[in-house]
Design brief:
Helix content: 25-40%
Radius of gyration: 21 Å
CATH architecture of the largest domain: 4-Layer Sandwich
Number of domains: 2
CATH topology of the largest domain: Metallo-beta-lactamase, Chain A
CATH superfamily of the largest domain: Ribonuclease Z/Hydroxyacylglutathione hydrolase-like
Number of helices: 14
Amino acid sequence: MRLIFLGATQTVTGSKYLLTVDSKKILIDCGLFQGYKELRLRNWEQFPIKPHEIDAVVITHAHIDHTGYLPLLVKNGFKGKIYTSPGTKALCSILLPDSGYLQEEEAKSANKYGYSKHKPALPLYTEEDARKALTHFETIDFGVSHHLFGECSFELIRAGHIIGASFIKIKNNNISILFTGDIGRPRDPVMRAPTIIQEADYIVMESTYGDRLHDTTDPLPQIGKVINHTVKRGGSIIIPAFAVGRAQSLLFYIYQLKKNAVIPDIPVFLDSPMAINASKILCTYKSDHRLNEEQCHGLCNVAIYTRTADESKQIDLQQMPKIIISASGMIEGGRILHHLKVFAPDHKSTIFLTGYQAGGTRGEKLMNGEREIKIHGQLIPVRAQVESMTSTSAHADYQELLDWLKHFNHPPKKLFITHGEAKSAQSFKEKVKENLGWDCVVPNYLYSEQLT
């Protein structure tokens, strides 16, 4: 077996790993690059492997940085099956068409306002391309060994993080390799803990928070404090949120705060058709999370759902304090951009960042104190208060990652540390060597290694 790293190398986006088994090629994850321009441009470059030569794709979970390149892969010639858990397929059925739609809208907007260098600006792929990719999906239940070809098989194992998220363990003859995707937190209030695994010959592991510990304080008081202080000023709370995972956690916290009368009963708008659908999927896949029937019901009913663009625009015209939860979580696209054009200049309001902000994104720039952000070709002043918190993260921090690794019966032959900014990945490598003494590599883009 040979492993080539086609993404998520010293960055948290573009997860793609090509595993060649004899003459067969398996792609593990197929994500979009996001953030810095030099990374985004890779989405437009020729794929390092001809898509028609790939025999199968296996996906860890539905987030766009792990799935968002699938429509282009299929468009450019991939004809095989895309294997996922049922929950991941359900989420991809809303995430991928939405991604195509947003790219079409971005191209349309760029052409209308003339802020693209390309004439005309074109989408990377369309909503229709995304729907065609979905026809290649085949679902595999957790804990079931699925034969691919020859002596090669794989198994999906519950990883926490979001609905359907999986570890992927591939075996060929006597060699096994584990791909973690994104690892959930052991004490997440919504999602179940990641499964403990005890052996693998090789591990490809995320390191999103490989250099940080999460704030362990209860997020409820902090969320309540931000909301109450903003309402007291007469402002609104604007929360960019990942539509899958983070939006549902935030609704759960707001439901609890309202139920206990900690915050006033102001309107809460979930302004993301994708997040609305994902919230309903959460209550369908009950074995993936910890919530009971009443909590699911409360989470799904605490907000006003706005599906259409006209409904979304009406939110911004209302003068009273309100909470707006909208995608995308790193402010790279979607309806959140329109809300920020209205509320970022408002000193009474608060922009509340509750998720990871990759380098080069608008979210990262806001978190680092920039007082102007470019949206749709315009520079928008930022006078609103900017708050951030990490205690709601759906990614394990470095101590939680180390604790998970300590359950392995013996060291892997090699641990490949991916899906983290360079500083984070290198820091986690040092922590693993210090605590476990394992052989670790932080691969570069297109790094390859023979697995024996």
